[in-house]
Specification:
Elements lengths: L8 E2 L2 H10 L4 H12 L6 H7 L4 E3 L2 E6 L4 E8 L4 E9 H5 L10
Parallel strand pairs: 1-5
Antiparallel strand pairs: 2-3, 3-4, 4-5
Helix pairs in contact: 1-2
């Protein structure tokens, strides 16, 4: 690989489409998140927070607040490969149950 930087690639785009379809009220926020993500070159959490200040690391996942804090987008970011895998898109009640944490190896 030459010294060029790679933009982040969302591995499972079909899941993003499903999130948008199932949560129409969050469509513009999800599309904005995806657009920013696709042109980013994140190497660590501080760089992610330069794009999304509310991003948090939870075990091996990165959690994004979406649509003001009404939803949580649960992802795993692989910095070396510059990829993001989408796991869950949850309202607070479902997020607070913490069932999603098994996907983050907590």
């Amino acid at each position: 690989m030459s010294g060029e930087s790679l933009a982040v690639r969302i591995v499972n785009e079909q899941r993003l489409s499903r999130f948008v379809r199932d949560h129409r009220e969050a469509k513009s926020a999800l599309i904005r998140w995806a657009a920013i993500t696709r042109v980013s070159q994140w190497r660590n959490l501080p760089e992610i927070r330069s794009s999304f200040r509310s991003a948090d690391q939870v075990c091996k996942c990165t959690v994004f607040n979406i649509l003001g804090n009404n939803y949580r987008l649960i992802t795993r970011i692989y910095h070396a490969e510059q990829t993001v895998t989408l796991y869950h898109f949850l309202k607070h009640k479902a997020y607070d149950r913490e069932r999603w944490k098994k996907d983050c190896e907590c």
